[in-house]
What does this fold into?
Amino acid sequence: MSAIISIATATAPVNDTTEATYLTKDHHPFLVRPSMSDDASQVIAAINAVCAERIYLLTECYVPTPQWEEVLHTPLECPDHLLLVPQMDGQVIGWCRVFPNPFGPKVRHIADVGIGLLQPFREIGIGTVLMECAIEWAGAQGLEKLTVSTFSTNQRAINLFKKVGFTATGVRHRQYKVDGDYVDEVLMERFL
Ligand SMILES: CC(C)(COP(=O)(O)OP(=O)(O)OC[C@H]1O[C@@H](n2cnc3c(N)ncnc32)[C@H](O)[C@@H]1OP(=O)(O)O)[C@@H](O)C(=O)NCCC(=O)NCCS
It folds into this structure.
């Protein structure tokens, strides 16, 4: 077991070989580490659980894009992608990803972030740790900017992203329709 790191100092370097243990706000330890192929089914289950809530993520369930499939099943073959998993009491309880833009050299300096936690594990500081680890990794990779987009109704996510240094750069109005109701998309970015 690695040393427990205070939640306030999520500065441990993260790469393919490192992991670190942190404390939630209520002092429960959780591990943060890169996802391994054995984690794939638990990560997909977590994504599906958050998708099933319907108000946080674009898709209705896990979508097996080439990027996701490669990162989940052959993570060592895509070192320019990061998929972190938080683990508590042996259970994968969410994910945080940093995926480079796949569309070639004009956007090679940026990457997109996505994050989700199972419902019982929210609002105890885990999202903050995951984002800080992701930002640390992205900087070490030489990336120049991270982007994220969220529903305008998701104030908790917006607050988290602002907390770790993202700024809102624009809104795409009525970008989504959730059960007949329009929802705006908030675009955010953080330079590294
Ligand atoms: C969004 C999410 C990743 C945030 O992670 P988290 O672990 O719950 O957040 P943290 O406990 O680290 O809190 C981070 C910040 O969020 C904000 N926040 C937390 N709870 C909040 C609430 N109920 N309302 C508004 N803001 C809130 C605070 O600014 C907090 O900072 P503080 O701890 O200094 O007060 C997590 O709640 C989640 O998975 N939600 C569902 C899926 C989702 O929304 N994913 C993101 C899609 S873009």
